[in-house]
Amino acid sequence: MKKIFIALLAVGSMLFTQCTKPTEGFTISINPDVFDNVVAVKFYDAAKPGVAPANIRLTISGDKAQSVYEISGHKIFNVVDGIISLGLLPAAAPAEGQPAVFVINAEADGYLPVRVPVTILAGQASKLVTISMVNLNNPPPGVTVVQKSTTLAGSAVPATEVIATPTTNSPVATSVSLPANTRFNDAGGNAITGNTLKTVIAHFNTLEAASLNAFPGSGFHSDDITDEAGNKVSGIFRTAGFCNIDMKLDDKEVKTFSQPVNVTIGVRNDQINPRTGAAFAAGDVIPVWSYQIETGKWVFEKNGTITNNAGKLEVDFTTTHLTYYNLAFLDNVCSEARATFVTGLPAEESFLVDIFPAGESTIPAISGYIMQVANNGVASFENVPQGNVTMKIYRNTAANSQTNWKVREAQPLAVYTGPLCGTQPTITLNIPALTTILFDIEGRCPGNSANPYVRPSVDVWYRMNNTGEYQLLGHVDQGKFQTTNLNYHSAYDFKVIWGGSRVYLRTKYIDSTAYTRTITVPENEQQHFCN
């Protein structure tokens, strides 16, 4: 399971020495690629994408959890600089029509917890999952937070208490009205006693990408939705706004109330109702859904009617439990869709893809989707909206953000409009004349005749020299990697995370089109890569 890092990081920063390739007289042992499916995971602060939450506590759950490892081959899930690479054992690999699914659960002090299902399709060798985490004390644009303490009388609310998110930085808000004499229960329905109720409400509007990126779960899609008829369905939400409401009574989690409380969620006046094609208006009916982060389940609550309150649109409803609440229509999806990419490039390349539902141009159903595909190769997508979509394909360069679909080069490489579900369109990418940079790297293990050479299989992250956030450049497979996403005669910072504790950094000026290197592994690193 031992692998090594890419040489452009190692040269100089690790004080490795370059040598002539001494293959004569040796049997070269290339370490087997233990993981056929690799998932690169990046956690980031929703307000500051270049900053990762500190001390992320990560666990893996779900059907394939026992087959998920850190890419070094260990069951230690340490997140370093917001980054971790996960591998799936071949025995658990996805098959045609049988995706592999596991769940990432993460917490960090001061942040809303997240639960993100990860789906790997057959043939999907590498995948990027970006996970936005909201800092309650420093929320991103589009997210407003209120934190309030209420003194109780006999463990009950003494008088009607209204708690609302501020409107200073948002045109819409969420408020909760607790009637007098409301009491509180835990997850088991047991009454909670105490003196101080602490309430935290976070409202997410649809104005900013950072707000929508924090939608709970794995983006707008879920395959664990209980619909109005009580059936378990899969679908994609077309949200008009959502909120999270948490309460603690003397540090004990509140889950239910002794009587219904009133919740009001604002709706943007300028957002288009996907069912009417016009802006939302008073009288429009929109479903209300609830989400439990502990289980990842969505449940239909009721239909809400939009009202106009002094020029502001809002939906009012009552509830007896705490959770995320989401105003949204539910659209059907296909579990898997494919497209053939004609790139004209000599090797695999990574691309960035955004997919918008029919008639939508401001809120993509899928954004920042990274894929590594060869010329005439097949790109696979999960949970794509049924019917016509608009797919925009971009270069995976530092100029195109993997966390904010509004940060894009002016011109995509290709735009496809039409169905993806039930068809496999061929899409020709209009790629400009670019310089291909080749890396072909191996490490030499002195004194190890059984395993004299090892070759890297790692995820490589990069950014323009000392500028912006680190993004995934691509997955290096057995020491070889080609890309046109690096600009010739430009400087970049590169990063590799290994084993949940080791960080390799290197600033490199790209002054060659081919980096073929044999690198002597230093003595203090041989235990990690040569055994």
Structure, explained:
This protein is an all-beta fold and 531 residues long. Among the domains are: 7-32 and 436-529, Immunoglobulin-like; 143-331, Chondroitinase Ac, Chain A, domain 3, CATH 2.60.220. The protein contains 3 helices and 36 strands. The strands form 7 sheets. It has a 5-stranded mixed β-barrel. Strands 3-4-1-7 form a 4-stranded mixed beta sheet, with no helix packed on it. Strand 31 (458-464) and strand 32 (471-476) form a beta hairpin. The longest helix has 4 residues, at 7-10. Mean pLDDT is 87; it is low at 1-32.
Largest sheet: 5 strands, mixed, barrel
* Ends apart, CA distance between termini: 10 Å
Query: Architecture of the domain at 143-331, according to CATH?
Result: Sandwich
Secondary structural class? mainly beta
Strand content: over 45%
Rounded mean pLDDT is: 87
Radius of gyration: 25 Å
What is the CATH topology of the domain at 143-331? Chondroitinase Ac, Chain A, domain 3
Shape: globular
Strand order of the largest sheet: 14-15-21-18-19
What portion of residues is helical? under 10%
β-strand number: 36
Q: Please mark out the parts with pLDDT under 50 across 5 or more consecutive residues, or reply none.
A: 1-32
